[in-house]
Hints:
By secondary structure, the protein is an alpha+beta fold. It is 37% helix and 23% strand. It has a five-stranded mixed beta sheet. A four-stranded antiparallel beta sheet has the order 11-14-12-13, covered by helices on one side. A three-stranded mixed beta sheet has the order 3-2-4. α11 packs across α12 (227-237) and α13 (267-288) packs antiparallel against α14. The longest helix is centred in the middle third of the chain and has 22 residues, at 267-288. The protein is globular, with a radius of gyration of 24 Å. The chain binds a DNA duplex through residues 33-34, 37-40, 42, 55-61, 64, 100-104, 192-198, 226, 228-229, 251-259, 294, 304, 306-312, 342, 344, 346, 406-407, 409-413.
Amino acid sequence: MTAHILHVDMDAFFVSAELVRRPELRGSPVLVGGTGNRGVVAAASYEARAYGIFSAMSTFQARRLCPEAIFLEGDHAYYGRVSSMIMEIFDRYTPLVEPISLDEAFLDVGGSKRLHGTPFEIAQSIRRDIKHEQGLTCSVGIAPNKFLAKLATEGAKPKPGPKGPVPGLGIKIVEEYEIQMFLDPLPVSALWGVGPATVTRLSQIGITTVLQLRSFPRASLIKALGKTQGSHLYRLAHGVDERNVEASQVIKSLSHEETFPEDLFDVDRIGTEIFRMSDAVGKRLRGIGFFGSTVNLKVRLKDFSTFNRSVTLANPTDSGKVIGRNALSLLETVDVAEGVRLLGVGMSNLAKSSQGLQLSFDEIGGDEPEWREAERAIDLIHERYGSQSIGAASTLTEKGLRPKEKGSQQWGPSDSLKK
DNA sequence: TCTGGGGTCCTCTGCCCT
DNA sequence: TCTGAGGGCAGAGGACCC
């Protein structure tokens, strides 16, 4: 099989997007993420990476490593707009585009050769278009499958150096005949699905590199890791990945969670926050025309211990009120006396609202059947006058209405949310 | 003064039913 | 009637990804 799968990954996307609109910051250590001490770094410029800062590091630690770094609060809506324009560029070259996140996608260009050239030429064109139209750079991996293409991208990326970023290859191809040569020296942590826990388990049986993993008997690997993960890793170590590039993906769950600038102790306040998040989840469900059957509540306490509770409803719902009522009863099973650091409300077991769902009297609002209509009316008012214009009294905090929008607190609480 | 948010998938456990 | 095995399912939580 020839290398025809492209993995395109933007270089330090959030930071680079900020530098486009704030060019005066170029050359400085710039970080995007949660600016409060409870936040994390979402993206670091290559100048900041030279200080040992990396994404997912706590903002507190990043500040200590580089006090002079410029911290920018993320602007999810802006990155979303830039991302859409980049995805449009991909669409020019193939209809088979699978976005993984705002800054990353797989493209199957197997059928694009006659129109657009070889995979390498297409990668060159995409990089040129993105640079020209958005002022951003990206790296591209090309390989016979998604797993190898993604790994190849890592080899194409710029690296941080003491005097600024050291340019990478930009494009890296892994052809069929060089797969093992490419994979064997890599650490097992480079494989998709191998995190810290699996690294530890593998090292206990003497496996630290892909070559060692490949040489290990499949049956022993399955014994050590279980059938699913064992055979999955065995195949990856041999460069086998049969997943196709999926242009459309079905949403399976949806949630909102939030870490608070200070721990919450007041049960009434916790209830208000749960209703606020439930409201947002309901709004998003209605926005995409879905109902959910399972209500999930996540609670993280002061000591970072985390509890997940869920309940499956007899009838699916898209009502924030119904979600909130169920989430609140789930809260009763968790002892929150020591203080709540994070709350999350989610829905799973989703189905399109057009799939002939029967809603019981209770699921559409119980004693207030008109509430369902009210929620839809609120959606319309939000659309027209903004999310601060109106909301249920149950979602009102002492700071006023704080409706939760997707991505509004993507990387943790900011300084401005602190009292 | 540390450790986000939004997802997916998997495994384990307990319960119910046959 | 009691008991155990086993399947199905829901719930909890771990692990991983970006």
